[in-house]
């Protein structure tokens, strides 16, 4: 099975004709299916898709990887002038837990711009994912993964990332985070939005649950929020992992991108306009 991935919005851009922003959105074509994975912050991914010749009217599913605004707020623009109104939205059952960043002097809201009421009001076809492995299309080896086990010792939760649960601010465990995994016959292609649960944990969960090696990883790694030691260990893990392609972007950060470029020969920094045939 061939897998084509088009980066519709990212922090950087390959062309002045394409917009960039602190956010992420990608269009995935695999096995005759088409998936919009994340929607960025502003809705600029829609203009970029047109400029790139990506036909979003063919979208069969919209997946929001987690509940931060820079991955989900663009969904408001998607519904305003929806290219594929029948395409269901896939979110995790814990998607609507409020999210904050601890800024020491205040808690800054970084969660969704819409809630369950808006979903109902706009009559958005919506599927709540609750299983650790969710088959996205009947008969196709395309899966949503969630509930990632934290088996990697250096991928610990970020204490500045908070969720409001039971009326209290708690360290966010990102229980709603989902990744897309595609079995192309040779191995797994794994797409992650931010990898708040850790890119190593996500890849290891995919390998164990689906019984196949990960041959390609694409997405954010959240090294922008990590210390130097964790960043070093992450790059070293990917360099030694045997994963044949590592496409990194978004929350990897400029220093993280430089580390991958220097320490992982099979890696590539992505931007708005990047197109991958995996």
Describe the model.
- This protein is an alpha/beta fold and 278 residues long.
- α6 runs parallel beside α7 (253-263).
- It is 22% helix and 29% strand.
- The chain contains seven helices and 18 strands.
- The protein has one domain (3-276): Ribonuclease Z/Hydroxyacylglutathione hydrolase-like (Metallo-beta-lactamase, Chain A), CATH 3.60.15.
- β6 and β7 form a beta hairpin.
Keywords:
278 residues; alpha/beta; Metallo-beta-lactamase, Chain A; seven-stranded mixed sheet; globular
Task: Give the rounded overall mean pLDDT.
Answer: 97
The main pleated sheet reads as:
7 strands, mixed
Structural class computed from helices and strand pairing = alpha/beta
Beta-strand share of residues: 25-35%
CATH class: Alpha Beta
Helix and strand run: EEEHEHHEEEHEEEEEEEHEHEHEE
In CATH, the architecture is 4-Layer Sandwich
What Rg do the Cα atoms give? 17 Å
Separate helix tally: 7
Stretches where pLDDT is under 50 for at least 5 consecutive residues are none
Q: What's the name of the CATH homologous superfamily?
A: Ribonuclease Z/Hydroxyacylglutathione hydrolase-like
Lateral arrangement of strands in the main beta sheet: 8-5-4-3-2-1-18
Kindly, what is the distance between the CA atoms of the first and last residues, rounded to a whole number of angstroms?
9 Å
């Amino acid at each position: 099975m061939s897998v084509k991935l088009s980066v519709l919005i990212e922090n950087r851009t390959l062309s002045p004709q394409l917009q960039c922003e602190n956010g992420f959105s990608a269009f995935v074509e695999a096995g005759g299916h088409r998936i919009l994975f994340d929607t960025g912050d502003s809705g600029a991914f829609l203009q970029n898709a047109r400029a790139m010749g990506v036909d979003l009217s063919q979208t069969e599913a919209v997946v929001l990887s987690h509940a931060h605004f820079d991955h989900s707020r663009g969904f408001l623009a998607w519904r305003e002038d929806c290219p594929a109104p029948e395409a269901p939205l896939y979110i995790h059952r814990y998607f609507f837990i409020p999210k904050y960043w601890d800024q020491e002097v205040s808690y800054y809201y970084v969660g969704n711009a819409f809630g369950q009421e808006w979903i109902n009001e706009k009559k958005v076809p919506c599927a709540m994912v609750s299983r650790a492995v969710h088959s996205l299309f009947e008969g196709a080896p395309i899966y949503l993964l969630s509930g990632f086990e934290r088996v990697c010792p250096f991928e610990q939760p970020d204490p500045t990332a908070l969720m409001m649960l039971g009326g209290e601010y708690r360290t966010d465990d990102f229980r709603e985070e989902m990744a897309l995994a595609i079995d192309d016959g040779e191995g797994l292609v794994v797409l992650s939005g931010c990898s708040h649960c850790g890119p190593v944990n996500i890849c290891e969960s995919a390998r164990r649950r689906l019984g196949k090696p990960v041959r390609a990883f694409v997405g954010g790694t959240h090294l922008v929020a990590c210390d130097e030691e964790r960043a070093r260990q992450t790059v070293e893990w990917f360099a030694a992992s045997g994963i044949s392609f590592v496409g990194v972007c978004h929350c990897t950060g400029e220093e993280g991108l430089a580390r991958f470029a220097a320490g992982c020969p099979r890696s590539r920094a992505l931007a708005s306009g990047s197109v991958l045939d995996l």
